[in-house]
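Usage

Read records sequentially. Each one opens with the input sequence:
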Amino acid sequence: MSTAATTSNKPARNHTFELLAKAHLQNEILLPGDEKYKERQDSFWSLYSKVEPACILRPASANEVATIVKTLVTTGQQFAIRSGGHTVWKGANNIQGGITIDLQFLSWIKFNKATDIVDLGPSAHWKDVYAELKKYGRIVAGGRNGKVGVGGLLLGGGKTFFTGSRGFACDDVVAYEVVLADGRIVTADANNEYQDLFLALKGGSNNFGIVTNFKMRSFVCEKIWGGLRILSKDNTGAALQALEEFTPRVSEDVDSNLLLFIAYMGEYVTFLTYEFTADLDSPEQKDVVVIEALVQVGAVENAPAYNKMLSIPSVMDINCFYTLSLKNDVRIFTKAVELHNQVVEDLKTLVPDGNFLTECLFQPLPKIFGQRSAELGGNIMGLSEQPADGVLWVAIVIVKTPEQEKVAYPKLQAWGEAVRAFAASIENGLLPWVYMNYADKSQQPLASYGLENVKKMKEVAAKYDPKEVFQKLCPGGFKISDVKL
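and closes with the structure output:
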């Protein structure tokens, strides 16, 4: 049985407002025309995700979230959930004509010195988390881009600079405070009656409720060594070979991280990624270049793991998405780069001023990542069963206008599908996992978690949300009801 839903039914929406007023939440409603409504709309990371909700609701506590959910269920009003607002595709964290629950005020960072556990509100940003924990000499294994919100990253699994030693970001979450579809507020952890919900939230996204607090383990990390190196495109082959050699050795040096970008920066004068900044002001750097982000969380400068990558001469030492998990095979990497370069040439014709950016991003995905997750109790993403060392690949195209997006997005999809087809032609070349936080709306990351984990998520959704509130009334994001067994 599912709940009937409406987005643009004005009487239903007015009834919703009446009920919220009775609950003394009318001051938290932002309407089109309000200055703060515009501010919140303009604060989404990607313009692609910008649609116009009938109103924005900004609760300040789990109790207010619960009241809002019960009200929306009563009136059958569709809604979206926003924490940091970083997901790039339309409808994921905002809703046309419906109501967006904006968790802006749930942004606390509370450190417990006695337990080393930190409470994080879903709308906190990682840069603020790190700044607060620095006061105590602690860190958490969180997002690598400080502008990303806590909630989305953790509910999508979360790749971090500590994945080799601590698993994914969700593996360090020890408890979730969750508002369920019936308005109950529960705490789910590994040992209580909600342990099935606890597991499902480790990569299962917004399918089961609204998480209003994350309890996360912190630890000591005093120094990190890292930076960007930008190489000429002549070094592409050497860089891809170095990537292939680096990946299986991650288990020997779990602190060393590598992100390898093949990128076109057009007329962008500054390239920003993972909080590193590189000023690009020469013609050579406005062509396709190779960018290495090296991050060593043990603070070992020029760690041996980087020997081959650092031997390549550098030019200087210093957002639509599609993602796949690939075999660690330089043939596949080379094909992805060839296709990237063709996309660049195509876009130069379609975007004549050259004012666009592309990234062909490779990150090691060795088996040890899934093994670390399993050692910490596991998650729902299925990576503990990964058959071989792999690489997480992301295709990215960034343009300036909606008109440009209409021509660029099909190019991105075609690029991704061509890489998929080529990888599939090589034995074990295409690995099953699709990372939710990088996935395009056309992809099915939940299905990639494996049959048994899909069954578990469906069982948890049916148990805690039998009326399918978070499948039908909250349609945004990747839905477990869309995955066929």
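Summary fields computed downstream for this record:
- Residues 267-285, 312-318 have pLDDT under 50 and may be disordered.
- The radius of gyration is 22 Å.
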